[in-house]
Design brief:
The complex is a heterodimer of chains A (about 300) and B (about 170). Chain A is α+β, with helices and mostly antiparallel strands. Chain A is built from two helices and twelve strands, in the order H-H-E-E-E-E-E-E-E-E-E-E-E-E. Chain B is mainly α and about 170 residues long. Classes of the chains: A alpha+beta (about 300), B mainly alpha (about 170).
């Protein structure tokens, strides 16, 4: 017999042997296996039913040991996923809440600014009302639209609207005298400040009634001239308008004596700090002009 | 064994979903372990069917929390019977889906009988639960068979192409 035929026959025998064993296992052995498995399973079942103390069998413990890690894994994955989803939802919610709060803060800031502006207007109007009551005069309100701080000619521009104004009207602030109207154009009035170097106001020391002339000497600085050296002047004395110049009524606050020095041979050199801070002005009031009675030279006024 | 492990894992997932969303019907009507037992019994024979049936049954017993051993006996018998029936009768693949439905029904019947014999007085499952279990098992078995058939055909096609390439070289 050739070698190839021997190998062929040997391979066939082995193959038939394997098939035969498998057949035996499938046909007969499987029945025996079924019987053995069922006996085992019934044993497990009957042992569980006969034991009253609830002690689990080894098989039950093994099944639990196999399933518990799986259940634990599933629960861990579920917790991880649900935690991630919850964090993601919370993040989205926080973003939306943050956006809503930002919008709310922005809206409230705008509202706050508006209310602050309203409050300032209210304060200004309240001061005007108080000043109007105190002065018992009809005041005309004007908004400051421009202040010239740079040139020596100190002035500001008031918007007085359609009420109109007249040249020479005194302009005041609740704190004191501001200046006088020098030019009118439309609803605007140009005001010469008392700190202007060309301005001169008839004034007096309130405490002693000593009169003089207050002039502007520079930015926020005044001086009182023509006060005799013999006059009693003290630092801190209040300087008010004297009402002798035909423009400004008497009693308007001008400022305070800041220093008293030796001037010329005849007069003091008095530095005056203005009562009004012209840099803080946002509104002012125009006093009605009171025309002086016209008296011709040489004529003696007749008392009424 | 890998299929058994995956089936057990998925079964735990199904039970978990059913308990989280409070869907008892869902948890009771899906038995992936039984699907795996029938599939292995149909493809590998009665020995495989019995052994895998016993293991899957014990896993089901551990998972269900009832009397331990009922599902082991039921799944062992189902695995054996499915394999024997497959050997005796020549069935088309499409008809094999009915084997899964019959296996689910047999499992329910065996568990009920064992319950009646050994435990006694237990409440039988509702017809809706039994019906949904049979239908779901048949559907999952059909899907598994379809995937298996598709995979085998793709694998055969790939192997034929590979052989033809080797011959050309």
């Amino acid at each position: 017999m050739p070698a190839s035929a021997k190998a062929y026959s040997g391979g066939a025998v082995a193959r038939w042997t394997r098939v035969g064993i498998r057949q035996v296992i499938n046909d007969r052995g499987s029945r025996w296996l079924l019987v053995i498995l069922l006996i085992f399973e019934f044993g497990v079942l009957s042992r569980q039913l006969s034991v009253d103390d609830g002690t689990p069998s080894r098989v039950e413990q093994g099944a639990l040991g196999a399933m518990a890690p799986l259940a634990h894994l599933v629960v861990a994955v579920q917790d991880g996923v649900s935690g991630f989803v919850a964090r993601r939802r919370r993040e989205v919610w926080l973003r939306q809440e943050n956006r809503r709060l930002e919008e709310s803060v922005s809206r409230l800031e705008r509202e706050l600014l508006r209310r602050q502006s309203v409050e300032l207007d209210f304060q200004r109007l309240a001061e005007a009302l108080r000043y109007s009551r105190e002065s018992s005069q009809d005041l005309q309100v004007g908004d400051v639209v421009f202040i010239d701080h740079s040139s020596a000619r100190r002035s500001l521009v008031l918007f007085v609207g359609g009420d109109g104004a007249s040249v020479g009207q005194a302009v005041v602030d609740p704190r004191g005298l501001v200046g006088r109207v020098v030019v009118i154009r439309g609803g605007y009035a140009k005001v010469q400040l008392v700190s202007d170097t060309a301005s001169a106001v008839g004034a007096m020391i309130e405490r002693t009634r000593r009169q003089g002339v207050v002039r502007g000497t520079g930015p926020n600085a005044l001086s009182m001239n023509y006060v005799p050296r013999g006059a009693d002047v003290r630092v801190g004395d209040r300087i008010v308008s004297a009402g002798i110049d035909g423009i400004y009524p008497r009693g308007l606050m001008l400022g305070f004596v800041e220093s008293v020095g030796e001037g010329t041979d005849l007069f003091h050199r008095i530095d005056v700090r203005p009562a009004v801070d012209f840099g803080l002005l946002d509104g002012a009031y125009l006093l009605p002009r009171v025309e002086l009675p016209s008296v011709e030279l040489g004529e003696t006024p007749v008392s009424p | 064994m890998l299929g058994l492990f995956l089936a057990a894992l998925l079964q735990v997932v199904v039970q978990r979903i059913g308990s989280v969303f409070d869907v008892e019907v869902m948890a009771g009507s899906i038995d992936l372990l039984l699907v795996i037992v029938v599939w292995i019994a149909l493809s590998s024979g009665s020995v495989g069917g019995q052994v895998v049936g016993m293991l899957a049954g014990f896993l089901s017993d551990g998972l269900m929390g009832g009397t331990f051993g009922l599902y082991a006996i039921a799944d062992t018998l189902v695995g054996y019977l499915a394999a024997v029936l497959r050997q005796r009768v020549v069935l088309q693949r499409s008809v094999l889906v009915l084997m899964f439905a019959a296996a689910a029904a047999a499992q329910v019947l065996i568990v009920m009988s064992l319950n009646f014999l050994f435990v006694g007085g237990s409440e039988p499952p509702s017809w809706i639960a039994v019906g949904s279990r049979i239908v779901t098992t048949a559907a999952l078995g059909g899907a598994l068979l379809a995937i298996e058939g598709r995979t085998r055909s793709e694998w055969g096609l790939w192997q034929r192409r590979r052989r033809s390439r080797l011959r050309l070289k």
